[in-house]
Amino acid sequence: MIKKSITAEAIRQYAVASQDLAPIHLDADAAAKAGLERPIAHGMYLMGLAQSLYIAEHPTQWITQYDMKFHKPIEADSIVIFDFTDDDCAVNVTLTTEAGDVIASGAFSVKEVQS
């Protein structure tokens, strides 16, 4: 289990890098119009972050395929808990809030890197 702060600055940096500048990710007024307290993180940012966190802890693994379902948005300046469980050649991942709400869930297919 890994806790990670999802900051407004990290969301902004991802928006610039991905060129996904949708206002709901960057603008508090746009987020409020959508019924949110703050801008939200990009789903692809969360999925990429999950993969990066896993690989950092398992450097001999290579992710060959992934599948992620997004259940609810996560607002900027929130903590996300990344929980990884190994299952043969797959890694199940669940992203939750500190309150236990599931944000996203999915799996990575992994294989051992040949040296």
From TrEMBL:
It holds the Pfam family MaoC_dehydratas. GO terms for biological process: fatty acid biosynthetic process. This is MaoC-like domain-containing protein. One of its GO terms (molecular function) is fatty acid synthase activity. Residues 4-78 form the MaoC-like domain. SUPFAM superfamilies: Thioesterase/thiol ester dehydrase-isomerase (SSF54637). One of its GO terms (cellular component) is fatty acid synthase complex.
